[in-house]
Amino acid sequence: MKRNVFISLALTAILMIFLCPPAQSEQLDQIRIADGKGDWGYPNPYLHYPRGPGYVRMSWVFDTLVWKDENGFIPALAEKWEYDPTRKAFVFDLNPKAKWHDGKPVTAEDAAFTIDYFKKHPYPWVFLGNVERAEASGKHRVTIFLSKPYAPFVSDVAGTMPILPKHIWKDVKDPRTFTDAAAFVGCGPYRFRDFDKAKRTYLFEAFDDYHLGKPKAKRLIYVRSGNPIMVLVTGLADLANITPDHEPVLKKKGMVILHDKCGWNKKLMMNHRKEPFSDKRFRHALCHAINQQEIIDKAHRGYGTPASFGLLSKDHDLYNPDTPTYEPDPAKARKILESLGYVKDEKGFYSKDGKPLKLELLASTITVAGEKVPDRDGEVIKRQLEAIGIQVDLANTEQTLTDTRVKKWDFDLAISGHGGILGDAKILAEMISSSVGAGSVNSARFDANPELNELLQQQMAEMDAEKRKALVYRIQEIYAREVPAISLYYPAGMAAYNSKKGIQWFFTKGGISKGIPIAQNKMSLVR
To answer: Which end of the chain, N or C, is less surrounded by CB atoms within 10 Å?
Structure first.
């Protein structure tokens, strides 16, 4: 009898294992992420490099009020939030379980303090110009008052601003020289443990008391490698950015391949503050001279998508499908040049008043989503412009030199690029207007059209979604007609990961924070 009971219990246990497999309760020992550059600064708000990969490393350590996953905004430190139009205020109720890495509770005082601190010591990733003040209206309720309505607030502030522990930062006078261990006390899912600047590796350790759940891996490690196939296949990394060439091999090896939407664009900057670029007609001639698809085919083996001349990605919720376009048309480009007084010489090149039409094109290796991507964009564009009669000096320079010259307006044409074009439509103001994008080398800093600049300000202050959409549509139309910079194409954003460890990585809707197109969302190691 006892023997039969024992057998029955054993069979029941076996069936339970197969029918109801146990939830993963034990943490993985480690998760490793590969990165081609490696060094993105130290992971706190004032020490990380001001590009997406630097912000992402910081995000493991410091939490924001809200966050995003593959479907949109989700709670982070704030369990819920709402906008009160009568007071022009956002009210956030914080999760009472949230703790700092030193064990102290996260309170509304910390959130209010962070607003004040970033106002005194600006953090480039967060614009607080429209924030009047913040106050703790309870231990876990913080109210942030605006000086005027600000539509990008949830994305630009609540979803990007890392909250600082008041008890640590209240006495810090110069945040950029604050490098003590306390400077890395956050309330995110991982503690920062080490950055080996020589090897360009990062080590993070799980914070088991994280308020949204115990992290799935005890350690998170970033390793530097420019060979994603090798590190993924050998197990030296569990996740890496890849190029389309890598996909077939990695698929055969059982890796999961992720494809991002169009969240990053390569663009051609023009010095519209000087002739001949100050004439919109000349800029139109360049638009017709450039063949976007040919650049993709010849410089990227066909991987990529022609970009919208209105800047916003075709995958953006507010993309205007009626944005003006410029078909590749060398004959039309030449006709425009001749209408501007340019005359061809015996070699087929244009000149005006005896002065040759000769332009310098700056090109360099660009970092896309954390990886250096060599290309031949400059060579292809040079041939396209010379085909219509414009002489081009192609100068291949370091990216830092190109950025410096563009920022100083010491250039004719320059190839650049940036992400964020799936995030909040504020990116339009940042990448068009000098009043908002003055600090960005990727911004056209174009102020010659008063209507355009007025609309850029209006759309950021419009809290009604449909009215804002109409403004954003109009902005794309005007910008595409002015074309102070030409968006060329959206490269294929891809990543691959090993699914055997049970982690599901994903590309974030709208990009991490303000639009970072990297598949390293911290929710993958939490939920």
So the answer is: N
Strand runs labelled E in 85-146? 89-94, 131-136, 141-146
Q: How confident is the model at residue 12 (pLDDT cuts 50, 70, 90)?
A: very low
State the average pLDDT for the chain: 92
Which whole number is the average pLDDT over 81-91? 97
User: What's the rounded Cα separation, in Å, for the pair 477 and 500?
Assistant: 47
Close Cβ partners of 222 (under 8 Å, ≥ 6 residues apart): 32, 33, 34, 35, 38, 57, 201, 202
Q: What integer pLDDT is reported at residue 399 of this predicted model?
A: 83
Kindly report, residue by residue over 314-329, the tens digit of the pLDDT. 999 999 999 999 999 9
Task: Provide the pLDDT confidence category of residue 51 given band limits of 50, 70 and 90.
Answer: confident
Structure tokens at 492: 């294929």
Contact 272, 283 (CB under 8 A): yes
Q: Are 109 and 136 in contact (CB under 8 A)?
A: yes
CB neighbour burial string for 192-224, b if at least 16 within 10 angstroms, e if fewer: beebeeeebbbbbbbbeebbbeebbbbbbbbbb
Cα angle value 152/524/500 (rounded, 5°): 155
| Phi, psi for residue 31 in degrees, rounded to 5 | -125, 135
CB 115 within 8 A of CB 108: no
What does each C-alpha distance from 239 to 7, 40, 227, 244, 251 come to in angstroms? 44, 17, 12, 15, 14
Q: Is the peptide bond before 45 cis (omega within 30 degrees of 0)?
A: no
Q: What is the rounded CA–CA span in Å between residue 336 and residue 78?
A: 56
Considering only CA atoms, which of 414, 513, 421 is closest in space to residue 476?
421
CB-CB contact of 508 with 323 (8 Å)? no
pLDDT band at 440 (very low <50, low <70, confident <90, very high): confident
- The CA radius of gyration of the chain, in Å to the nearest whole number, is 26
Going by pLDDT thresholds of 50, 70 and 90, the confidence category of residue 366 is: low
Cβ partners under 8 Å of residue 191, min gap 6: 61, 101, 184, 204, 205, 206, 207
Q: How many CA atoms lie within 13 A of 331 on its CB side?
A: 0
Provide the token pair at 413. 């044409």
In this structure, what token pair is assigned to residue 169? 């930062």
CA gap 506, 407 in Å, rounded: 34
Please give the average per-residue pLDDT across 131-152, as a whole number: 96
Tell me the CA distances in angstroms from 489 to 268, 299, 300, one per residue in order.
Answer: 10, 11, 11
Mean pLDDT of 326-355: 96
Residues 87-97, mean pLDDT to the nearest whole number: 98
Which contacts of 124-127 are long-range, i.e. CB under 8 A and separated by 24 or more positions?
124/50, 124/439, 125/45, 125/50, 125/55, 125/160, 125/161, 125/513, 125/514, 126/156, 126/157, 126/160, 126/161, 127/156, 127/157
